Amino acid sequence: MKFSTSSLAIALGLVAAPAFAGGLAEPVADPVVPAAPVAVAPVVTGSDWTGGYVGAQLGYGQAETDDDPASFDEDGAIYGAQAGYNYDFGSFVLGGELDFTGTELGNDLTDIDGIARAKVRAGYDAGAFLPYLTAGYASAYTSEEIDGDDQFDGYLYGAGVDYAVSENIVVGAEVLQHEFEDVGAVDLDATTAAARVNYKF
């Protein structure tokens, strides 16, 4: 029996078809292994302001009498030292401070030799910064007696900000308004602005 060329081609195609059919199957993909979760470090938003401190201050002051400005209206340098303690409640910081500030405020009648202060401070823990409000008691000492007295009590209020340069060194600035009543026959107001540096324990 004789086969034609076309018959031979058809026969070869039928034999090869099963082999090619197996090659048309879709490849099996490798299983995807999920990546292990990465731990995220907690973000620290504040600093610990708890602790005692001591330091020094240097600045400028201005004082005048309310009732009779002509009797006392002077300005000059101020300088002093302070000691205090803060307690950090988280975002709120509460503290107390004692300081004594010498002054160069005076005229021909008398000088304000110094001002002693006892203050309460309430601030916000903003990390390295601590903005705060303060208020308390003040006592002014004069070089000459006025109506038989050389010490005059009053109160103060103001604001400031501290900045933690390092764990132990804190710098800052503070502005205070003082009110002294009955300094002789008049009331005395004093404003001070000072740069401060503290060593924190």
Automatic annotation (TrEMBL):
UniProt domain Outer membrane protein beta-barrel: residue ranges = 35-201
Localization annotation? Membrane
Q: Which GO terms describe its cellular component?
A: membrane
Its chief place of residence is membrane
Swiss-Prot/TrEMBL keywords:
Membrane, Signal
Asked if Signal is a keyword of the record, the answer is yes
Quick one: signal sequence residues? 1-21
The transmembrane residues are none
SUPFAM superfamilies noted in UniProt: OMPA-like
PANTHER family in alphabetical order: BLL7405 PROTEIN
The record's similarity note reads:
Belongs to the Omp25/RopB family.
Name of the protein this chain belongs to: Opacity protein
Organism (species)? Limimaricola pyoseonensis
